[in-house]
Amino acid sequence: MLKAARTAAAIAKGSKGVPPQHFNAGPAGKMYRIAMPWSEVKIDNKLARVRRLESLARKQDAAVNKVTINWSDYEQQVVIATLDGRVVADYRPMTRLWCTVSAEKNGVRQSNSANLSGRYGMDHYTDERLQVLAKKQACLRPRDRFWDIPVPKIDSAFDNLFVPQPSWSPSTAQQLRKLVAAPYLAPI
């Protein structure tokens, strides 16, 4: 209790430093330059980009049956004041365009997703970037199509090593010794 009282007294006294007597505003940060702030971009312009991406994603494969697109953007105004009186400000835009594609063929369903994101403005979402997102990232590439991979027929759990096996316990270890030669199992 005495320690808590001493801590409270130290906080009440405050620091021995002198607070800033005046502030010196520095130049605004110019790390993220964009042509138009997100707060000024009209919803119609954003919606046109979303519809374009949906159209591009659906054209990639006839098996595509669902396209989901999420858009987010925001901007921050950050002000930092130091103890020596310096004040700096920065503008931080942020945007993300996320595309998820679902497809079904021969009774097999598959989905894939990708996004474009970063501290950019509306001019970042060019037609070329949307095509890359739809074609190479958000669509189902031939090497990833589950329906193109031949799946062997499984007659029993012992035909495939990827079938989950029962949990290990001393009793199952005894059973496994009878079924499989397992020299790495320690004697019980």
Description:
The protein is of the alpha+beta class and 188 residues long. It has a domain at 19-140: PmbA/TldD fold. Helices cover 27% and strands 27% of the residues. It is built from 4 helices and 4 strands. The chain has helices spanning 2-13, 43-59, 127-137, 170-179, and strands spanning 24-25, 64-81, 86-105, 108-118. Strands 1, 2, 3 and 4 form a 4-stranded mixed sheet that branches. Strand 2 and strand 3 form a beta hairpin. Helix 2 packs parallel to helix 3. The longest helix has 17 residues, at 43-59. The chain is elongated, with a radius of gyration of 30 Å. It starts with a helix and ends in a 9-residue tail after the last helix. The model is unreliable at 157-173 and 176-186 (pLDDT under 50).
Radius of gyration: 30 Å
What is the end-to-end distance? 55 Å
Strand content: 25-35%
CATH superfamily of one domain: PmbA/TldD superfamily
Per the CATH scheme, the topology name of one domain is PmbA/TldD fold
Coarse structural class: alpha+beta
Order of helices and strands: HEHEEEHH
Helix content: 25-40%
Which CATH architecture of one domain is right? 2-Layer Sandwich
The total beta strand count reads 4
Give the overall shape. elongated
pLDDT under 50 segments (min length 5)? 157-173, 176-186
Figure out the total of helices: 4
CATH class of one domain: Alpha Beta
Q: Please, what is the average pLDDT?
A: 76
The major β-sheet equals: 4 strands, mixed
